[in-house]
Amino acid sequence: MGKTSSSPRPQAPGKPLAAFLIAIDGLVRRARSGPLPEQTEILYVSPLKALSNDVHKNLDAPLAGIAALARERGVVLAPIRTALRTGDTPQSDASG
Fold it and tell me: Which of 24, 32, 33, 70 is 20 to 30 A from 10 in CA distance terms?
């Protein structure tokens, strides 16, 4: 915890994915041992226009692939969840 990752090269493809893969690796390793805590583990800040695409391409798709591979190999993983928050997110959803 308390680790950061940044890639200062503007408009270089793959930067978010590279940072996410480091974080995803840590979550998957911990998820093999049991449920993850109900708390925010990774925070990613992105321009709103790119946010939903970034979350799908760099989080949801890799996590789905990892979960499928784990199932194929008989590896039990606790669920790893993603959530999207914007300025339009109701306060009741944003705090949960």
Answer: 24
